[in-house]
Q: What sequence folds into this?
């Protein structure tokens, strides 16, 4: 046994020292692509903070955030959860056909009431017609891919309820179009609609308003986009999604301004973002408080879209139909929306259902 | 700092190892003492002072008790002083706000002091208190060296969550203990078993309980699944911590007493308390129950003594009414078993005895789990709502966790141990290092993941 004991001791002590050493040698990272957040760095040490225990806490964060081989360890843990027969890991279903689907099983009733009241109040107060297009989540659309039973709230009932409660707003039905789609309208590794899914919502919107629908085909501009659900679940081995660019023959030019800045861009796409981790930011450069797009469309209609990040990939489909499109993201835009509506013909509220019922930022809607 | 954390495993522990294996024999206790103070002071810099105070006071008490060994009356004064001092500290830091809350409920209007509980005070105050008593009873000699005594009190493996080590059990080891590679390897194995219990079993079981108890609507079966998960969590958490403490002790030459002995295979509540948190039960027996007279003064006094002991055992676990209730609940069950249930149980088949014990243990954990009494009664009702006995959430949770729950259930029994013992030494030679490595890798993955905190929408 002596040899075996020595081997045990060597492995144990060696393991601990190896990672201590690696921790010391490997350079610290300030940002994690996989998690999309800044990481803790080595804290400054002051006597006051040592005595209050603050230094201990920041050092603990530092050790965790900079741990060597973090991502492989996280993936290993996810794999072990799956080995135990689990299909829900960190709030994400590992569904059939390598599809990741975010669980949606709670509704904050109070928040729901507040949000719907604020939207109704807003719609009543402004003079332009307001439409609402609430996108169901992948749980409803891809239910056949989910394990049975799965633990989610009844989304169809929730959508019906929202439709009924939005008394001042024109409801745009999109669920059936997404359910009957010929292919998955969602990314497999991200919670957003993909370009094809966004196209379907655009069609549903214009069909409902009896407006002409522009035709598009799709061109793959990048592959292996691993989205938020990949990060959240730790299932890093699941291959990414392609990023699609909607194209057609029309030669509409655009001029895009972000957050009221001087600088203007001639495309709704950010080519350079295809090289970063969050490739979804290819569309409208990701999150901005305010995006103003003026186009050469032979039309003087103006549209204002109140949206979360789902709106980004809707933008390319609207540019041929409107002279001006304004995207407002209430999470970051805290100005008065009703004062922007002088020349606006319609308002579209375009949200994913989860943020629609849970977002606290409708407080800024006035 | 807890053992099941990255900073303990990959920073503090390597440091301890390096220092201890380099320190000359003479300074071994001094180094261990300083390292332990660092361990404690890491997250509680202020309360180190409190622990040192307690150490010095009882060091002094021990010396005085020995000095007046011939004069029992005088010696007893120092024992009394130690008891009052330690219970005073514990009472002030742990129970002041609880008592203020109770008085306020009775109509008074006092402001709570907002004291944060010093980590481990319930454990070390019991340890230091036992020391002058042991000396007074002649069961141990007074410790001459304040460093050696400090090493006993502050010893980091058992400082925070036990097992409660009694001075007389460890006095000799403070002077001389052997450190061999066999003992170190045994410590490593024990430590990794404990780490695995805590990180894999306790944390995952805890996640199940948290999910289920947060649901506003839960069927009967789902409520039972939640309660069973809680029973797993608390056992693997606590016994895992004891395993780690015993393992760490071994690595540095100490032999600590066992604290758990497969409590869930018990066939009665009396047996359960002989298998659960053994060091606490025997502490209360030796320093409270027996001095109160134990069972030597007739049935009525025995019952009184049992109730006192179990009232205090409950209160020791936490400053809230549910813990008192929990202690008294077990006190009554033990009394009933003593009076007649055990005779009745002896005639039942074994399966019934297991069911009886497990059912009552689970109800005990229900009382233990909720310090909010309205939540407790709400959860309690959902355990017995026969009209809504099953729902989709239960089927889902069962499908997700069935394998884990089965594994956890088996791990509560001696089955894995029996299997391991049946392996030939030849295979064990290879198996041991492999198991240690596998366990370390798995635990590290879970620990790293616990800090994995994707921020999915926006970076401010």
A:
């Amino acid at each position: 046994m002596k040899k075996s004991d020595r081997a045990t001791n060597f492995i144990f002590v060696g393991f601990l020292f190896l990672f201590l050493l690696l921790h010391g040698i490997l350079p610290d990272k300030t940002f994690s692509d996989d998690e999309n957040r800044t990481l803790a760095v080595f804290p400054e040490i002051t006597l006051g903070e040592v005595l209050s225990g603050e230094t201990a806490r920041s050092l603990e964060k530092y050790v965790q955030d900079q741990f060597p081989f973090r991502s492989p360890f996280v993936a290993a843990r996810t794999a072990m959860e799956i080995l135990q027969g689990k299909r829900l890991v960190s709030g994400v279903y590992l569904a059939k056909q390598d599809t990741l689907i975010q669980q949606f099983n709670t509704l904050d009733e109070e928040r729901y009431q507040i949000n719907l009241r604020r939207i109704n109040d807003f719609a009543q107060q402004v003079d332009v017609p307001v439409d609402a297009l609430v996108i169901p989540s992948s749980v409803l659309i891809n239910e056949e891919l989910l394990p049975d039973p799965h633990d989610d709230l009844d989304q169809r009932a929730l959508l019906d309820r929202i439709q009924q409660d939005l008394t001042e707003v024109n409801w745009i039905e999109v669920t059936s179009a997404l359910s009957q789609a010929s292919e998955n309208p969602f990314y497999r590794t991200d919670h957003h609609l993909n370009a094809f899914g966004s196209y379907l919502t655009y069609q549903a919107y214009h069909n409902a308003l009896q407006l002409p629908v522009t035709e598009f085909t799709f061109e793959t501009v990048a592959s292996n986009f691993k989205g938020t659900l990949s990060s959240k679940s730790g299932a890093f081995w699941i291959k990414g999604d392609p990023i699609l660019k909607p194209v057609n023959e029309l030669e509409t030019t655009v001029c895009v301004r972000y957050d009221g800045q001087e600088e203007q861009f001639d495309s709704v796409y950010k080519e350079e973002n295809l090289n970063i981790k969050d490739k979804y930011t290819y569309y409208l450069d990701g999150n901005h408080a305010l995006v103003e797009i003026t186009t050469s469309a032979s039309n003087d209609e103006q549209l204002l879209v109140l949206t979360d990040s789902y709106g980004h990939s809707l933008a390319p489909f609207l540019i041929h139909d409107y002279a001006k499109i304004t995207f407002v993201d209430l999470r970051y835009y805290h100005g008065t929306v009703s004062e922007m509506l002088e020349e606006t013909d319609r308002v579209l509220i375009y949200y994913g259902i989860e943020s629609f019922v849970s977002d606290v930022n409708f407080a800024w809607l006035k | 700092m807890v053992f099941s954390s990255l900073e303990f495993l990959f920073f503090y522990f390597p440091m301890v190892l390096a220092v201890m294996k380099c320190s000359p024999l003479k300074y071994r206790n001094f180094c261990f003492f300083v390292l332990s103070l660092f361990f404690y002071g890491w997250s509680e810099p202020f309360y180190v002072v409190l622990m040192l105070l307690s150490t010095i006071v009882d060091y002094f008490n021990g010396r005085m008790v020995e000095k007046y060994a011939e004069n029992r009356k005088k010696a007893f004064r120092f024992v009394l002083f130690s008891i009052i001092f330690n219970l005073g500290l514990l009472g002030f830091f742990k129970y002041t706000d609880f008592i203020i809350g109770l008085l306020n409920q009775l109509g008074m209007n006092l402001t709570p002091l907002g004291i944060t509980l010093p980590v481990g005070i319930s454990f070390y105050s019991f340890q230091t208190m036992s020391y002058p008593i042991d000396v007074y009873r002649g069961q141990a000699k007074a410790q001459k060296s304040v460093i050696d005594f400090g090493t006993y009190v502050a010893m980091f493996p058992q400082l925070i969550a036990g097992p409660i080590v009694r001075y007389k059990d460890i006095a000799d080891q403070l002077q001389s203990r052997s450190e061999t590679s066999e003992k170190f390897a045994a410590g490593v194995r024990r430590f990794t078993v404990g780490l695995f219990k805590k990180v894999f079993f306790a944390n995952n079981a805890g996640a199940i309980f948290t999910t289920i108890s947060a649901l506003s609507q839960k069927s009967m079966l789902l409520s039972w699944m939640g309660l069973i998960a809680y029973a797993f969590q608390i056992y693997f958490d606590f016994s895992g911590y004891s395993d780690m403490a015993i393992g760490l002790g071994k690595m540095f030459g100490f032999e600590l007493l066992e604290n758990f002995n497969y409590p869930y295979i018990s066939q009665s509540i009396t047996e359960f308390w002989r298998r659960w948190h053994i060091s606490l039960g025997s502490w209360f027996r030796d320093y409270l129950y027996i001095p109160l007279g134990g069972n030597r003064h007739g049935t009525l006094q025995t019952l009184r003594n049992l109730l006192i002991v179990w009232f205090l055992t409950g209160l020791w676990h936490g400053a809230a009414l549910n813990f008192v209730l929990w202690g008294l609940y077990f006190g009554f069950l033990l009394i009933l078993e003593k009076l007649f249930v055990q005779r009745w149980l002896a005639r039942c088949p074994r399966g019934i005895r297991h069911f009886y014990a497990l059912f009552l243990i689970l109800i005990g954990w229900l009382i233990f789990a909720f310090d909010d009494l309205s939540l407790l009664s709400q959860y309690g009702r959902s355990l017995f709502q026969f009209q809504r006995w099953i729902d989709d959430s239960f089927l889902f949770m069962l499908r997700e966790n069935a394998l884990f729950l089965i594994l956890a259930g088996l791990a509560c029994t001696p089955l894995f141990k029996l299997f391991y013992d049946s392996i030939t030494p030849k295979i064990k030679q290879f198996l041991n290092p492999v198991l240690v490595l596998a366990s370390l890798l798995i635990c590290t993955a879970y620990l790293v993941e616990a800090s994995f905190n994707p921020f999915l929408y926006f970076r401010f």
Notes: Chain B touches chain A through 60 residues (CB under 8 Å). Chain B has two domains: 6-176, 183-416. Chain B has a mean pLDDT of 88.
